[in-house]
Write a structure and sequence with these properties.
This protein is α/β, with parallel strands linked by helices. The chain has eleven helices and eight strands. It folds into two domains: 232 residues, Alpha-Beta Barrel (TIM Barrel), CATH 3.20.20.60; 31 residues, no CATH class. It has an eight-stranded parallel beta barrel, surrounded by seven helices. 3-methyl-2-oxobutanoic acid binds next to strand 6.
Amino acid sequence: MRQTISKIQELKNAGEKITMLTAYDYSTARLVDDAGVHLILVGDSLGMVVLGYDSTVPVSMDEMLHHIRAVVRGARMALVVGDMPFMSYQASVEDAMRNAGRLLQQGGCQAVKLEGGVVMAETTRRIVNCGIPVMGHIGLTPQSIHQLGGHRVQGKTTDAAKRLLEDALALEQAGAFAIVLELVPVQLAKLITGKLRIPTIGIGAGPFCDGQVLVINDMLGLFTDFVPKHTKQYAKLASAMKNAISEYCADVKTGAFPSAEHGVSIDNSLLQDL
Ligand code: KIV
């Protein structure tokens, strides 16, 4: 049976940690799903690690839908969360409801994620009222990168910490089923997690969140433009891939590939009159 938002809540209630990873394509979604990860996020990090943009800002609804559909085809057990791209929910609540609906109806995911706290509480409430589960996202919100001035830890002063706590409480009140805390000091993430009934999912927010999320290309060592400080690399797939590609090129050049086993042979006599 697929994960549901109630089962995710039960994990927090039982004190069990929640796992979330991003995925952007069918094959990766299959692997993540088979590994038993609770939530798969089709994040708008897609823009940077798959599409090569220099931020998440250019990602469009069509791009998100294209990748959400692929992930949904590969995910049988995990709850798939589709990220709402920049300007698909900020201009009006009506836009937000319509676009959240598109991600579920045309993409096939089971929940959406959007960035922002108090300012997005009403939008969250209205989307939830349409029957669409919403995951919040506060702290470093990459769609506001030009306003924030860089990938910096948020909530480092008492005022900023108070605002983040208010953001989290507002989202919970609005009906969000979970909240991503990105680049938040460990102690503040612990405090927010303790004050909320719903789960927090941390990225660069320390060990006290109810769950953790990483960008899969980062944790597999596949994205090499930069390695975020909060990432743990569980594999070095970029070098494994480079080695494999070099070996393939060498084999093609020397004739070692393809060999007999990679082709189909017929009796030479069949071609003798041609
Ligand atoms: O887009 C994304 O991958 C995200 C995670 C970093 C939480 O929002």
